Amino acid sequence: xxxxxxxxxxxxxxxxxxxxxxxxxxxxxxxxxxxxxxxxxxxxxxxxxxxxxxxxxxxxxxxxxxxxxxxxxxxxxxxxxxxxxxxxxxxxxxxxxxxxxxxxxxxxxxxxxxxxxxxxxxxxxxxxxxxxxxxxxxxxxxxxxxxxxxxxxxxxxxxxxxxxxxxxxxxxxxxxxxxxxxxxxxxxxxxxxxxxxxxxxxxxxxxxxxxxx
Length: 213
Ligand SMILES: Nc1ncnc2c1ncn2[C@@H]1O[C@H](COP(=O)(O)OP(=O)(O)O)[C@@H](O)[C@H]1O
Ligand SMILES: [Mg+2]
Description:
The chain has 8 helices and 5 strands. About 50% of the residues lie in helices and about 10% in strands. It has one domain: 3-Layer(aba) Sandwich (Rossmann fold). Helix 1 crosses helix 8, helix 2 packs antiparallel against helix 3 and helix 4 packs across helix 7. By secondary structure, the protein is α/β, with parallel strands linked by helices. Strands 2-3-1-4-5 form a 5-stranded parallel β-sheet, sandwiched between helices. Bound molecules: adenosine-5'-diphosphate (ADP) and magnesium ion.
């Protein structure tokens, strides 16, 4: 799939600061006169929000394969209805999680067959790849401590074992490829945002002109 816009994805384990950064990073973009389309996975369309509820409810757990396909159904619907049209219209899209999360959680975390996960994931994204993936790396112990400190009610995935979350982090740490950048999520929020914004401007200097401090 070809696109004219610019697709930025925030990735990383639980508590690494993705949702905290989403609004402020969008604000940085607006300060550069770019109004991004902001989405979070799973969600963003009616069908995807239904999938989200099915996935994250600790009272009604789904098995690993059903989990995979709920995530992918949510992604396919979001890509088709929101992300792909926005990019085709030349917009910047900023997403809290995307396809790499499925590799980290369902493949590395759950242990599902890599070929099956990659093939299904590719179908769900309609072949769309982020232009920039910012991975916020954080040890699971620290992420969990942040969530507890914030009094957050943990969802089904967040309650998984420490070993599960270690496999997720290992996968993120090893992730490479075009447009993949790693950030140290132990940084305080303002410094982490500063680093992320610098990466965005470096990756899309024509969209976000100006000196990178
Ligand atoms: N850079 C940071 N340093 C310290 N605490 C943070 C940082 N970013 C977020 N937090 C706090 O950690 C918790 C989890 O952050 P959140 O953005 O929800 O993580 P995620 O969306 O990656 O799971 C929140 O209570 C948030 O206030
Ligand atoms: Mg979040």
